[in-house]
Design a protein that fits this description.
The chain is mostly beta strands. It has one helix and seven strands. The protein is elongated and about 95 Å long.
């Protein structure tokens, strides 16, 4: 004898909609994670990351600075201390707009690097292109590697 079992029509298989993590909270507790989001909480301070590379002729500094204008940057070299400072402004919220999520950081930043004594501070070149700041700090000629030829005698 064969027994045929049928599914209980009330028990539906789990779908993406039923497994959605906030569905229970919205349906049962009437909680909306975006509506109750605390916009008054301070966001993380903006601190750009830098890549520093040494070549035979110079030290190269690169940083991603999206949304920062050239006028908002200040780059200085005092002795062997290179400082890059600036700010990224917070976008203004217009009347009738409501922010649901704010993850981008903004504010003032300052990074200072101590350079070796072998740099030519008068010849530092800074370029801001497509949101990437590139600083080239050349080395003095006497410390750059040079090739010495050998003569047969």
């Amino acid at each position: 004898m064969t027994i045929l079992r049928t599914r209980n029509p009330q028990a539906l298989p789990a779908t993406a909609a039923t497994l959605e993590p906030f569905r229970f909270m919205r349906d049962f507790m009437r909680w909306d994670p975006l509506r109750d989001y605390d916009l008054g909480a301070p966001t993380a301070a903006f601190m750009p990351s830098f890549d520093v590379k040494e070549t035979p002729d110079a030290y190269q500094f690169r940083a991603d600075l999206p949304g920062i204008l050239e006028a908002d940057l200040e780059i200085s070299l005092e002795g062997t201390r290179l400082t890059v400072a600036g700010k990224r402004e917070e976008e203004a919220v217009k009347e009738g707009e409501r922010i649901h999520l704010a993850e981008r950081s903004h504010g003032r930043f300052s990074r200072t690097f101590t350079l070796p004594e072998d740099v030519e501070g008068e010849k530092v070149v800074a370029e801001l292109r497509n949101g990437v700041l590139t600083l080239m700090v050349p080395k003095r000629p006497e410390v750059r590697p040079r090739k010495i030829s050998v003569h047969l005698g």
